[in-house]
Write a structure and sequence with these properties.
The structure holds two protein chains of two kinds. By secondary structure, chain A is mainly α. In chain A, 72% of the residues lie in helices and 0% in strands. Chain B has twelve helices and no strands. The chains are: A mainly alpha, B mainly alpha.
Chain lengths: 287, 296
């Protein structure tokens, strides 16, 4: 696969300033402003006092800087709890789902077992089934397993991810059989071979899948909304959505601060790991 | 003998690897898929939550009711409106940005790429907070900007005509980066020398775009169209967090109506609706495969 950019070539290439390139870059800059402007504006507004947020015309930079939206948010709305819930759920979903995907992906790609074809066909068959189709029966099922209002309800349904299996299997098909045979000849058992030889080989795929799974879990909204009614188990998006659509008078300052708390960690993770994410998207088409 | 013993060992070990996924997959994916089909043909209500086996089969009644319900018609129309406008819009903007970024003239390519992708990774709930604010009629940034150039902006989300365009704008803003990244990868698969050769033959940028970029990018474009279309057909979160389907049902979508009926306790009806949506998704995917096949 060709990499999506070549940083060295880019920095060493002299920037050209022709009328055409200037026009093109101005167009891109306008697009960039439209793209990240709302997010920047969110962060800036979150440190404005309530009155200034509602001011007309709006101020670009805060005239009066304040942390009070954040302190109020954490004091009044139990946000630390929601934050911890989101982190715990996203981490467990990520670790569990990536590990299980890698394990079954390995079996499907490299081992022979009865039922292998049938299992792969089922996984592929459900790849297209959208969450909207299964959420009502899933709710009925989870209720009958007495898991409503538990962390298990937020985690278990996401540990079996068909797309992760597909991705890991594809990646593992490329691992040479000789490498696995060598490990076995050296006396490594199947589990040893998997953890010591296969997993290190698949690090790029694990990273991509891990990041995308974490993002998906962190931003997940519909399922946590129906699966927990106990406020102690709310994740950040659920808490913020219920607060913002609630009947009580809504404070805009708290809302933008809450939105910033949801988005900022993700944006930071994204900025640090963007190469993995962007290339993962480009190669797999997985959001 | 030895070989079959070894094979059996591999079979056992292999199931050891496959088991955790398979059990969870069977319980949380196969059971719901199968039971949604079952529920769609029953009169299951919220009161039957604990006794899903004790419900009555009603044949196609749910489907008849859904397809005859004016509220569902409105939701289906809204969904098609949304997909029909937002999907081409997303694709067109994403293509434009990808081509500009790929032209070699962009100064800070990775900055642009990251910036355009940033909205994709943000939570829809946070996005909704920001956009409700931007579209706020009295002090929102959009209308105050329009005010500067002498235009009185509409009351976006509470206006029956403007509510849907508001959501289309927001969804497009959020999804362009994702499509752009895939298109960019597709563009990089087109050999540079094709452009160089055509430039020697005197082809300008527009001609190159039409005769090289679009035909060679077509499979990628189709892929993006289908992925975006499938996502947009399930249009739910935007109306949930922005408008609750209003005003007067103007932004009610099929997915939002599924959620509503679930909320009212009409589980059977809700399951039937989700199958109608699923069939629409399958048709869209099928059309893509047909289009891809005629390509070759």
């Amino acid at each position: 696969m060709t990499t999506t950019d070549a940083p060295l070539a880019e920095t060493h290439r002299r920037r050209r300033f022709t009328p055409r390139s200037i026009l093109l870059n101005v167009a891109l800059l306008i697009g960039l402003a439209a793209s990240i402007g709302p997010l920047l504006w969110m962060v800036v507004s979150s440190v404005k006092p309530e009155g200034e947020i509602r001011q007309f015309p709006p101020t670009l930079l805060p005239e009066q800087f304040t942390w009070s939206n954040y302190t109020d948010l954490f004091a009044s709305l139990n946000f630390p709890r929601y934050f911890v819930n989101s982190v715990v759920v996203a981490l467990l979903v990520t670790v569990g789902s990536v590990l299980f995907s890698a394990m079954v992906g390995y079996a499907l790609a490299k081992l022979d077992f009865p039922g292998r074809r049938a299992l792969f066909a089922l996984v592929m068959g459900t790849l297209m089934v959208p969450g909207m189709v299964t959420f009502v029966p899933l709710f009925v099922l989870v209720a009958n397993l007495d898991l409503i209002n538990t962390y298990a309800a937020l985690i278990l349904p996401f540990l079996a991810a068909p797309f992760g299996v597909f991705l890991m299997r594809q990646f593992m098909l490329d691992i040479p059989d000789e490498l696995l045979d060598a490990a076995r000849v050296d006396g490594a058992g199947e589990f040893r071979t998997f953890f010591a030889v296969v997993l290190p080989q698949t690090r790029p795929a694990l990273a991509t899948l891990g990041i995308l799974t974490f993002l998906g879990s962190w931003n997940n909204f519909l399922w946590p909304l129906v699966a927990v009614q106990n406020a102690d188990l709310y994740t950040l998006p659920v808490a913020l959505a219920l607060y913002s659509t609630g009947q009580n008078t809504v404070q805009y300052g708290l809302l933008v601060a809450g939105a910033t708390v949801i988005v900022l960690p993700i944006l930071i993770v994204f900025l640090v790991l963007q190469r993995h994410i962007v290339q993962g998207i480009a190669t797999t088409g997985l959001k | 003998m030895v070989a079959s013993a070894r094979r059996r060992r591999t079979g056992l070990a292999a199931w050891g690897f496959a088991l955790p996924f398979t059990v969870l997959f069977a319980v949380f994916m196969l059971v719901p898929v199968a039971s949604s089909l079952y529920m769609a043909f029953t009169d299951m209500q919220g009161a039957d939550l604990r006794t899903p086996w004790a419900v009555n089969f009603v044949g196609l009644d749910n489907f008849v009711e859904v397809l005859g319900d004016p509220k569902f018609h409105q939701a289906a129309g809204n969904t098609l409106y949304f997909v029909g406008v937002a999907m081409p819009l997303t694709l067109a903007i994403a293509l434009l940005l990808a081509v500009l970024l790929n032209s070699g003239l962009a100064w800070f390519r990775s900055v642009f790429r990251v910036g355009f992708y940033a909205p994709v990774v943000t939570s829809i709930v946070a996005v909704a907070v920001v956009w409700r604010f931007l579209l706020q009629p009295d002090f929102g940034l959009v209308n105050s900007t329009l005010d500067v150039i002498g235009i009185e902006g509409p009351r976006w989300l509470t206006d029956e005509v403007w509510a849907m365009p508001s959501l289309i704008m927001m969804a497009t803003w959020r999804n362009v980066g994702y499509t752009m990244v895939i298109l960019l990868a597709g563009l990089q698969g087109i050999p540079r020398d094709l452009y160089e050769a055509s430039a020697i033959d005197g082809a300008g940028a527009v001609r190159q775009f039409r005769s090289i970029t679009v035909p060679l990018l077509r499979p990628t474009l189709l892929f993006c169209a289908v992925i975006t279309g499938i996502g947009y057909l399930q249009f739910f979160e935007e109306p949930f967090v922005m408008t609750q389907g209003g005003p007067l049902g103007a932004t009610n979508s099929v997915a939002y109506e599924i959620f509503n009926q679930f909320g009212f306790g009409n589980y059977g009806l809700s399951a039937a609706m989700s199958y109608v949506l699923f069939i629409a998704i399958v048709i869209l995917s099928y059309l893509q495969f047909r289009l891809l096949r005629t390509e070759k």
